[in-house]
Design goal:
The complex is a heterodimer of chains A (350) and B (499). Chain A is mainly alpha-helical and 350 residues long. Chain A has 3 domains: 97 residues, Orthogonal Bundle (Arc Repressor Mutant, subunit A), CATH 1.10.10; 129 residues, no CATH class; 93 residues, Orthogonal Bundle (Arc Repressor Mutant, subunit A). Chain A contains 19 helices and 2 strands. Chain A has a two-stranded antiparallel sheet. In chain A, helix 1 crosses helix 5 and helix 15 crosses helix 16. Chain A is globular. With 499 residues, chain B is of the alpha/beta class. Chain B has 3 domains: 192 residues, Rossmann fold (3-Layer(aba) Sandwich); 147 residues, Rossmann fold, CATH 3.40.50.300; 83 residues. Chain B starts with a helix and ends with a helix. Classes of the chains: A mainly alpha (350), B alpha/beta (499).
Chain lengths: 350, 499
């Protein structure tokens, strides 16, 4: 694996995690693992945009990248599989932050589950229109029955002629690509399949642009998420129609969802633990996850305002997320649960 | 009455049958069970697609590969056939439910074997008239097939449940031990066998030995530069396929890509389609490539690593020259290659320790179908290992019994499993040895291949094999103009897509 851009992303994550999470946290973040821990981490450390945006990465890849950074003296170990940036690492990172492409539109938190289907539909629709207009036969570029049926039904339900629909879609895509960089627009266009050209792989585009495939991957994702966000803001549009029935769920794990339902019915943590035959600590994990994800969820039934204030004060003073450090610094009796709850709710405010 | 030829023209647009097709179709229409072994690319699907327009009821096709299934469905739809459905894991629940409700309306019902586990689907199938029961890739039934699948074992019983409709078992090149299994498990009777020669006369066969690996790499580069494409290069590992594809690119050979099972499905599809459409000349791949890839004009297949057995080798070189034109298969061999293949084979078999763990787990939790999968995962078995154990458990009747097992039963099972794995290991070694022997043998390679399948060669082609001797001239690259792609910026390209 060529590692240029991946290394930069690693530095970015390690910088944010600041030695407080291990390499597997980075892996879980990129692969979009729906565990309470990963979901909270991505919020706490403001890495939501990357959630589930690099699903092909393996733990091996991540470890190999860290190994390389370590060899080059850019990071140093603090604990078991946790790293911080060295001074040189920080210098290089800051330099890259100024110069390198950064996926500002990336919103893995919101789109990680729907982007693939949106892209499948869009690219199949483009391929179909292109072939219909050129009167050529074709084989669908995705072997995915659901997408196939969806696109077919979409086309059948259209009152517009194919040419008209193509014109509209062309204009929508053109507008969006005009407001991203030339390179991003190129990447996106080449990934599309037309009547005469099967879409290119990331690797092929990378070799045309003389970049690495991971870089191309994130450029593509960035445009895709920008397109989805634009479509959501600009209705009606063809692009919005492609995504309107794709669910954009609150990312809660299945078990947490159940706990949330019980909470809404007024049950206490203790009662839910009994009902669901789970440990109290498990239910507490769920509550923390809910607090991190659902803005209107109130934490006051579980922690007093006074304690919360104290916890936040300590967090701001010590600039840490380590639970033990926080707890030790507060003389009063606060539980880990209370600290986690406050951190989850207050999220980024430090 | 409409003749078969008329139907062929009307529904499929062909003027005449290919070799063997007519005889198979006639036997089916007479109500015989048919075992058909046709060469790859021999037009197998027509053998059940045409009878569907004669027989009353639906044709049920069981196909193990979703991609293959989708291909067929696509082709049928392109021919204007609307009454076709494919039940596989990709089908949306709602679509599935609706399709089951009006199942009798479909002329073609494609099903993956795991879908047949669904009670509802099975029930619906029992309530309609199945005119023909087709098992595609039937060699998957036999554990002696190179691609056996445990869920195929149930097909015999399922066929009985459906009232034993006429059965057509289609298989690629398979030795007698495999075809015997097929006949036995599917209970084909009265049976007509249509076994066609495994020989592909338009493919010349060449084996080339080198002493060292770097010589082999150079040889590969030479051939790829020299030979007329499009071509496939087979490797035994993903890593090798990737690295070599990149090396070839650095050597100035453009239009090369790699393909293996570790890539995400979209990128895989792009490479496959690019190759089909001639955007790529060469694909460096593992055995994952090729199933369902219907490219007519592949001119060469090179094996950088040898496969573990003749059947796989024949299957892979069979992707060349489906258009009937002159093509070549080259196998590159370096001393010690068989050791690598051997060690790869070893990792495919479960270890004693893993079997022990599984048995202990079975004693604790029983062998209910849904927990079995979990227990296997807990023993850190790979997919291939799981498949083998599943097959053995299935044949032992363990996999479907939900009752707890006694200590004696588990102990006996352990012995059985170890024994079966050992016999499989011996069998695989034997197969590999056969392959190695073939490489070193001094007689005609074509004759040996045909003999391995207990057939005899009718006629030896002029361009036969390296043992018989043939010149390479006819296979060399003739410069043809290529459709070069010129990129004039994204605006122009985007316009080009739509207008």
């Amino acid at each position: 694996m060529k590692s240029g851009y991946a290394s930069f992303l690693m530095l970015f994550c390690l910088h944010r995690f600041n030695g407080e999470r291990s390499l597997s946290a980075i892996y879980h973040l990129f692969s979009g693992k729906k565990s309470s821990q990963t979901l909270q981490d991505s919020k706490w450390f403001q890495l939501e945009r990357f959630f589930g945006t690099w699903k092909e990465a393996t733990l091996n890849d991540i470890e190999a990248l860290a190994e390389q950074l370590l060899e080059n003296g850019l990071i140093s170990p603090v604990q078991n599989r946790s790293y911080v940036l060295t001074e040189e690492g920080r210098r290089q990172f800051n330099e890259q932050m100024r110069q390198a492409f950064f996926p500002v539109h990336l919103n893995g938190w919101r789109y990680h589950a729907s982007e693939k289907w949106f892209w499948y539909r869009l690219s199949l629709l483009v391929q179909t229109l292109s072939n219909v207009l050129h009167r050529t036969r074709f084989e669908p570029i995705h072997r995915h029955e659901e997408t196939f049926i969806w696109v077919k039904q979409y086309l059948l339900s259209q009152r517009k002629m194919a040419r008209e629909l193509a014109q509209t879609l062309y204009e929508e895509i053109y507008d969006i690509l005009s407001s991203v960089s030339e390179e991003e627009a190129t990447v996106f266009t080449l990934r599309l399949t037309s009547f005469e050209r099967i879409g290119w792989t990331n690797e092929q585009i990378a070799s045309l642009l003389q970049k690495d495939p991971v870089y191309v991957h994130f450029q593509f994702q960035n445009v895709l998420h920008y397109m989805m966000a634009t479509a959501e803001a600009k209705q009606p549009s063809v692009l919005y129609e492609l995504m309107h029935d794709l669910s954009l769920p609150i990312p809660l794990t299945f078990s947490t969802r159940k706990t949330y339902e019980w909470l809404l019915r007024g049950k206490s943590i203790e009662e839910i633990a009994k009902l669901r035959r789970l440990k109290r600590s498990t239910i507490e994990d769920h509550v923390v996850e809910i607090a991190a994800n659902i803005p209107q969820f109130s934490i006051w039934p579980f922690v007093s305002e006074k304690k919360a204030e104290k916890i936040m004060e300590t967090v701001r003073k010590l600039r840490t997320r380590k639970l033990k450090v926080i707890r030790d610094a507060i003389a009063d009796d606060v539980s880990y649960f209370e600290i986690r709850l406050v951190l989850a709710k207050e999220g980024k405010m430090w | 009455m409409v003749t078969l030829e008329q139907l062929l023209r009307e529904k499929f647009g062909y003027d005449s049958f290919r070799k063997g097709q007519r005889e198979i179709i006639e036997d089916i229409l007479r109500g015989y069970d048919v075992l058909a072994m046709l060469p790859t690319g021999g037009g197998k699907s027509l053998c059940y697609q045409l009878p569907a327009y004669v027989l009353k009821g639906s044709v049920l096709i069981i196909s193990p590969l979703v991609s293959l299934m989708e291909d067929q469905v696509q082709q049928l739809r392109q021919r204007g056939e609307k009454r076709v459905i494919a039940f596989n894991s990709f089908l949306e629940t709602e679509v599935k439910r609706k399709a089951i409700e009006r199942l009798h309306e479909f002329r073609f019902i494609y099903v993956s074997p795991e879908m047949l586990q669904s009670e509802r689907l099975l029930h619906a199938l029992m309530n309609i008239r199945i005119s023909l029961f087709v098992v595609d890739e039937a060699h998957c039934i036999s554990q002696w097939g190179y691609d056996f699948r445990p869920d195929f074992l149930k097909l015999g019983e399922i066929r009985k449940h459906l009232g034993s409709p006429t059965c057509l078992a289609l298989t690629a090149t398979a030795p007698p031990e495999v075809t015997d299994d097929i006949v036995h498990i599917l209970q084909l009777q009265p049976l007509r066998r249509h076994i066609h020669s495994v020989d592909r006369p338009n493919i010349a066969i060449k084996v080339e030995k080198t002493e060292f690996i770097h010589e082999k790499i150079n040889k590969l580069f030479d051939y790829v530069k020299m030979l007329q494409g499009p071509g496939l290069v087979y490797f035994s590992s993903r890593q090798w396929a990737e690295t070599t594809a990149r090396q070839l690119q650095r050597e100035g050979i453009e239009r090369v890509a790699y393909y293996h099972g570790g890539m995400d499905s979209e990128q895989r599809m792009l490479v496959q389609q690019q190759f089909l459409r001639g955007q790529l000349d060469i694909v460096c791949c593992t055995s994952a490539f090729g199933m369902g890839v219907n490219k007519e004009n592949i001119r060469f297949v090179i094996h950088f690593h040898m496969p573990g057995q003749m059947e796989a080798y024949l299957q892979e070189i069979g992707r060349a020259g489906r258009d009937g034109k002159r093509s070549i298969a080259i196998l590159l061999y370096t001393n010690g290659d068989e050791d690598m293949v051997q060690s790869l084979m070893e990792t495919e078999l479960p270890t004693d320790a893993q079997v022990k763990r599984l048995c202990e787990s079975l004693l604790l939790y029983g062998a209910a179908p849904d927990s079995l999968e979990q227990q296997m995962s807990a023993c850190s078995l790979t997919d291939v290992q799981k498949r083998i154990l599943m097959y053995f458990l299935e044949t032992e009747g363990i996999a479907s019994s939900p009752r707890p097992l006694t200590e004696q039963e588990v102990a006996a099972l352990y012995e059985k499993l170890i024994e079966k794995i050992e016999s499989r290991r011996r069998w695989k070694r034997k197969k590999l040895l056969e392959m190695v022997k073939w490489i070193f043998h001094h007689s005609c390679r074509r004759e040996l291949i045909v003999r391995a399948f207990q057939q005899s060669l009718e006629k030896k082609p002029d361009l036969c094999c390296d043992r018989c001797g043939f010149p390479l001239d006819g296979y060399l690259r003739v410069e043809t103009e290529k459709k070069e792609f010129h990129f004039h910026g994204w605006q122009a390209e985007l316009k080009r897509i739509f207008f």
